[in-house]
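Local shape tokens:
==================
===
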Amino acid sequence: MPDTTDAEGLTVGQVSARLDVTVRALHHWDEIGLARPSLRTPAGYRLYTVPDLERLHRIVVYRELGLGLDKIRAVLDDSATDVPAALRAQRAQIAARIDRLRQLAAGLDRMIDAHEHGLLLTAEQQAAIFGPGWSPDGPVQARQRYGDTTQWRQYAERSASRTPEEWQAVADDTARLERALGEAMDAGVTPGSPEANHLVERHREVFASYFPLSRQMQVCLGRMYESDPGFAAHHDAIRPGLATWFRQLVDAAARAHGIDPATATWDEDR
């Protein structure tokens, strides 16, 4: 491509470099008649004159403001176009987009906090929802123990969008389940019975508020309820021996689904 001077006009490449616009965009604007170069060299190369550059500069300014090419054409060429009104409309769209981005940023902040801390509740809210025996250190310890697991990530994703009222509903569901377990134990419900299997399924449904619980995972959880001093004490406070009794219910239900509790692992698929 021959070199040209500013007096003669600028080539597409020179305009591209001067205005920081791609050659492809300049060719497209030429094709649609938005900004056509006024001159051509004898060899047929496009040359942009000073008035052409002024128009291009205006196009770049309006494009940076977010106007589409059709709207830019109207602003530049249609005398009936109310330019301030068009710019106000564009500003309204940008303001709405900014508001949406702020909401997304707030959502990201909550998701980050949930992954790092688990519960997005104050200590006072936790005590009010989960009872005075609840320890705010529990989520911190859980994060330290399970923070690298898929289940912690699933729990954090649920926690990030959950309100205190929704956490209260989770706590209420858990309390109702625990009362039902105590009453069933008092009534002599035996492992493997329809009543027992219903309670095991209900436990999986309630626990899904934290993360999906497969049957194999539930077997592992039942073992932990029985062997972990903290969990065992919590369940045995509902009824003495409830931790062991519930583990037996879970084991029997697992066998009915072809799972050997003795070899069950933390498997998400079964």
Remarks:
- The first strand starts at residue 39 and ends at 40.
- The chain has a mean pLDDT of 92.
